[in-house]
Specification:
- With about 525 residues, this protein is mostly helical.
- Helices cover about 35% and strands about 5% of the residues.
- The protein is built from 18 helices and eight strands.
- The strands form four sheets. It has a two-stranded antiparallel ribbon with strand order 1-5. It has a two-stranded antiparallel ribbon with strand order 2-3. It has a two-stranded antiparallel ribbon with strand order 4-8.
């Protein structure tokens, strides 16, 4: 891990250009020249620390403090495909039955084919983004703890938020990479490279950190924080995910504990009546602090077509899901349907996945055009791909009106939603670790919102329902692994393992490889088994 570069980059941009109140309230920012001003010179007020905290949030939303791709925070990581949540989608969705990408960029096909190695640039981008975020949060917490300035009135609240954001990145780290370099604010800048923490030990630390934050009076209650800010709802979601995946990550089933955390979340949130609204340009109205639409979206990574945007996140999901095949109008989408003026033509849904949707399912927002449902080639002679295209995310407001811009979307990335809480509880009930009647009721509630009827609460139905409800939101790989379906021959999809009809792969691919660049620079690290 390029720790020195991470820390230097984080401190060089303690004030974030363009991260305005339209995105994260009370964290307005002003750019500062990092070549002439040191952190010690500017971290002298409550406002300045708020601006530094904004950088910790901004790292989830865009790759640079200077626009969508100018001066990326991390040397060697592309500002487009390396954006945090685009990297999450690449590794959590493109590796699964959900989708493929017909671009022949670098080692991109290796993701869907499940044959990456320790030099894969897309895996490297996710890894570096995770630990860049952790380093930023560590530095913020460290400097806040050491600050003795007068007037730092929000000190404890800001530290709690930074800890919650750090926990979010460790959640992605434990899921994707397992045994990872570990550091906190106790590890000073310039100290020895971080030691590797084993997955089970990291799990224990994260559980205790989450519990401590839930008990922390300085962190706001679920749904009580300003738009885009971390609160206890975010932390409880991470804790629920830890318990849900404990059998994989810890080697010990903890579904009962997951259900208990879900029980604690349920009183604070509600399903929004219209599924499509959750993924449109003004989906900020569906966040937990909005009184307009209700309380479904628990935490978001904001996007703003004018002031906060990137080539990743929802911009990627909207633009890359379009398609235009030269000379074949039947295979050309009218991109105005998703609120943009031109698209990127890349992502396709697999037939194995789209075949799971029942007729009249409101979540089946597909452009079918003249495309076959099942993918026969990852990239055909037209540079395209078969398979239907997703129209789940759009840059159009819920009432059909145009968003404020077409070049970059306004649509926020929903990191966690309440529907997931209901489905997690339902899964725990299907595993005999929660009340069966409540689990069935919550399961049916999610389906009813989609326009569907009752379905028996079985594990097979749960994994399919999670796919239909949460596709493209960064959970599919994690879910398939938990159900024993990701690398095995129990479930196949087009080009799984590189075979047209799919094939099983080595179980080592249940984890991503630690990038060789970090192994070479940090002698404390060992590669994940099999790589």
């Amino acid at each position: 891990m390029k720790k020195i570069n991470f820390i230097a980059s984080a401190l060089a941009a303690v004030i974030v250009a363009g991260f305005t109140s339209s995105c994260v309230k009370d964290l307005d920012v002003t750019p500062i020249d990092p070549n002439t001003v040191l952190p010690e010179d500017v971290l002298n007020s409550d406002e300045a620390f708020g601006q530094f905290l904004a950088k910790c949030y901004q790292g989830l939303c865009s790759s640079s403090s200077y626009g969508e791709n100018g001066g990326p925070d991390i040397d060697g990581v592309d500002g487009g495909y390396g954006q945090y949540f685009r990297a999450v989608v690449n590794l959590q969705e493109l590796t699964t039955d959900v989708m493929t990408c017909c671009w022949n960029d670098g080692t991109l096909f290796d993701l869907h084919n499940l044959c990456w190695n320790s030099s894969n640039e897309f895996v490297f981008s996710m890894y570096m983004r995770i630990f860049f975020q952790i380093s930023q949060c560590n530095e913020f917490i460290r400097r806040s703890n050491n600050s003795t300035i007068n007037g730092y009135d929000h000190k404890e609240q800001y530290i709690a938020e930074a800890r919650a954001l750090r926990l979010l990145s460790y959640y992605h780290a434990i899921d994707m990479f397992g045994n990872v370099p570990f550091s906190t604010e106790e590890d000073s800048v310039g100290s020895n490279p971080p030691q590797q923490k084993m997955r089970g030990d990291l799990f224990d630390w994260m559980v205790e950190e989450a519990k401590d934050l839930i008990d922390n009076a300085s962190l706001r209650s679920p749904g009580a924080a300003e738009y885009g800010r971390a609160d206890k709802g975010l932390v409880m979601m991470i804790l629920a995910k830890l318990y849900l995946n404990a059998e994989v990550w810890k080697g010990q089933a903890m579904y009962k504990e997951c259900a208990e955390v879900c029980d604690g979340l349920i009183p604070f949130y509600a399903l929004h009546e219209n599924y499509k609204d959750l993924f449109c340009a003004d989906n900020h109205l569906c966040t937990s602090n909005s009184t307009f639409f209700g309380d479904e979206i628990i935490f978001v990574a904001p996007q703003d077509g004018n002031q906060l945007h990137s080539y990743g996140s929802t911009n990627f999901l909207v633009f890359a899901s379009t398609f235009s095949v030269t000379g074949k109008p039947e295979k050309t989408m009218d991109v105005a349907q998703v609120g943009i003026s031109s698209g990127w033509s890349g992502l396709s849904l697999t037939g194995a996945f789209t075949s799971k949707f029942e007729e009249n399912d409101a979540r089946a927002m597909f452009f079918k055009g003249g495309f076959s449902q099942y993918i026969s080639e990852l990239r055909d002679a037209d540079g395209a791909s078969e398979g239907w295209k997703s129209m789940k995310f759009s840059n159009i407001n819920h009432d059909g009106s145009a968003a404020q811009a077409q070049g970059f979307v306004d649509t926020d990335f929903p990191v966690f939603r309440f529907a997931d809480v209901l489905l997690m509880y339902a899964e725990c009930a299907a595993r005999n670790a929660a009340n069966a009647s409540d689990g069935q009721s919550y399961f049916d509630e999610v389906r009813e919102r989609a326009g569907l009827g009752h379905l028996a609460l079985t594990l097979e139905n749960v994994i399919d329902e999670r796919g239909r409800e949460l596709y493209l939101e960064g959970f599919r790989r994690q879910d398939l692994i938990r159900f024993g379906l990701f690398t095995t021959d129990k479930y196949l999809w087009e080009f799984k393992g590189g075979a047209k009809d799919g094939t099983a792969v080595d179980s080592k691919f249940n984890l991503f490889s630690i990038p060789s660049a970090d192994l070479n620079s940090n002698g404390n690290l060992k590669q994940n088994p099999g790589y």
